[in-house]
Amino acid sequence: MSNKESSASSPAPSPLSPYLDAVANIFHPVASPVLNSYNLFHGWKESMGLVQPGTAENLTKEVQQVHLANWFFDGARADISKVVSANPAFQLTHTFSLGSSSRPPAYNFGAIFANANTFLHGSVDGQGQVTARANQTWSPHDISKLQAQLTNKPAQTMVQIEHDHLAPHYTFSLKSMNPGLLDGTGIHFVSLLHSIGPRLSLGFETIIQNTSVSKLETSTSYLAKLTSLPDRSAAASAALSPLGGPPIAQPFSPSWIATAQLQPSGNVQATYYQKMSDKVDVALDLQTNFQPASPLGPSQRGATATLGAKYDFRPATFRAQVDSNMKVGMLLEQRFTPAFAFLVGGEIDHARNTSRFGVGIQIESTTM
């Protein structure tokens, strides 16, 4: 009885089974060595302790978070935002700015929508200029981005499309600005950043400028990133990878980061970021400027070093920096309540005997 039940439960052989077995026997001598070689190579890479190096675009992200380039403003500014929904996140923003006498007052209205996989941001100013940004996360490895700027000013309308593929040990990115779908014109970027050890990552970024069908120019920059050793938190985040699959290497937060970029013109940009403590970050940026003589001007040989620090207190964030051109700047963000913050900043250029000053407020309201 048990033999009959076992024979009844087992599936009947398919008429195609002999043919499938014959095809498998034909390709097995070729496929087996290839698969074995791949498994050996994959095991060798895993034994090296490789990490996810991040994207080439964010190579100096930590330095940019410390320095004032992306944070400083002059004149008066007011940011008023209203949180309509928390999940999914939906927020409306109003920005009023008043600059110097050469820059008229400006108003900007924006809206932000975000959930676990999608981020949408759009804004329009008083001059009718529309900007839009969209990020879509397809999987833990693939992110697509879109940026657009629409304006009535000539040669300032822009569309940018990019895609990042974050593999366990490398990141491959494609970016295109004002792409021509029919003739392939536009400015295209191809970048690769690969981890070759637990601390060192190397890569490149190639720019392809195809301004017309008959004119094509390419230039390549070479990238290097050296960090401190990954800590245990990075290993723990990799062990908790989603979807129940194999562990995925996650970007970690090192205590220090050193980067170098060799540009096509021969100039070098080197940065160093050090996390001194939970509240203090320090960053150094060195950029050379070597230009040969041309009809536009004489040759130039020089370098600029910028040293900055960021202090995070419970109610405030203070940024300060000084560079080799005798320029000193600071920005203080004082948050009196979770819904109200006061900003004040100043910059003095001793070489040019000029100065800038900015003051602003941030107000956030919610209906919840």
TrEMBL record:
Keywords: Membrane, Mitochondrion, Mitochondrion outer membrane, Protein transport, Receptor, Transmembrane, Transmembrane beta strand, Transport
GO molecular function: protein transmembrane transporter activity
Entry annotated with the keyword Nucleotide-binding: no
Pfam families (alphabetical): Porin_3
Location relative to the cell: Mitochondrion outer membrane
UniProt GO cellular component terms: mitochondrial outer membrane
Transport as UniProt keyword: yes
Principal cellular location given in the protein's record: mitochondrion
Any one of the GO BP annotations: protein import into mitochondrial matrix
InterPro entries: Porin_dom_sf, Porin_Euk/Tom40, Tom40
Highest rank taxon of the organism: Eukaryota
Membrane topology: Multi-pass membrane protein
Family named by the database record: Belongs to the Tom40 family.
Name of this protein: Mitochondrial import receptor subunit TOM40
Protein's organism: Tremella mesenterica
